[in-house]
Amino acid sequence: MSHTAHIPSHRKPRRSASKLALRAGVAGGVLSTIAVAGAAGPANAEPVTETIEMPTLGSLGTDLSSAVAASAEASQQEALGQSLEAQETAALQKAAKEAKKAKAEADRKAEAERAEKARQEAEAKAERERAEAEARAEAQARASRDSARTQLTSTSASDSSGSSGSSASDSGSSASDSGSSSSASDSTQAPSGTAAAIVAFARAQVGDAYVTGGTGPNSWDCSGLVQAAYANAGIDLPRISYQQSSMGSSVSLSNLQPGDILYWGSRSGSYHVAIYVGGGKYVGAQNSSTGVVERSLDWDPPSGAVRLL
Fold it and tell me: Residue 2 and residue 12: Cα distance in Å, rounded?
């Protein structure tokens, strides 16, 4: 225990600020009342008492609290308004950014669609031009072959007319009999064995599409069909038409047999091949317009033929 604990304190207790203010207000009111009474007149006059109300701490505290509350509410409203404005600004910026992004994506898709459409149109145009070029080349080749045959026929007729009458007559009769015999034999000839397999395969593809470089099973070019038909019979052929027409031995168009390879152009430089199927007909992958067809030799007479069987 402290040695100073038994000494009493001489300090006066502190008075609170509220009590001091209250006493000051009461004293002020009393003094004001006395001063007014002294100035009213003589001693025998009735005393006039006037009380001046002084503001109390209670009303001051209430007013102050109201002011503080109002200020706080105003600050809160202002802060809320600023927050809403900031949110609106952020939302507008986000919407603008998303709209810009969506527009860029739409522009990109539109450009891609335009490019794809242009590509398709270019491919279609190229295909049309290629088909037209093939048709023109085929027509020109056919016209050239027809002209050459006409010239050859005229030359042969002229040579025949220059010979003796009896010899020409005998020779003509012999040639006519031989041609009739060959024609009759060809029309009744039926393929057999390897030739039958080649012809059957070729005829089975009639109606398929023509595609440059096609090797089946549903689309072919001319040499691709011939190669596949011979492969079906166990015979390997080169892939290119002029290589195919260079194989085997040459045969006359008047002495054809089923399975013979027909060619157009020169033997070592042919540009088209097909398979003779008998009866004066052939099967070939002609072009993109006709596909694989079976046609008479008269429709497009070949330049020659070769036999591998």
Answer: 22
Please tell me the pTM assigned to this model.
0.42
**103 vs 9: CA distance, rounded Å:** 87
Tell me the β-bridge partners of 54: none
Contacts of 292 (CB under 8 A, 6+ apart): 205, 206, 207, 208, 209, 210, 220, 225, 283, 284, 285, 286
Residue 121: predicted pLDDT: 87
Q: How many residues does the chain have?
A: 309
**Can you tell me which residue has the tokens 């085997």?**
248
Counts for the chain of helices (H) and strands (E), in that order:
6, 8
65, 92, 95, 118, 140 from 105: Cα distances, Å? 59, 20, 15, 20, 52
230-266 pLDDT, tens digit per residue, is: 999 999 999 999 999 999 999 999 999 999 999 999 9
Q: How far apart are CA 5 and CA 164, in angstroms?
A: 176
Exposure b/e, 209-232, CB count within 10 A at least 16 = b: ebbeebeeeebbbbbbbbbbbbee
pLDDT tens column, 91-122: 989 999 899 889 998 988 888 988 888 888 88
Residue 68 CA, chain-centre distance (Å), reads: 69
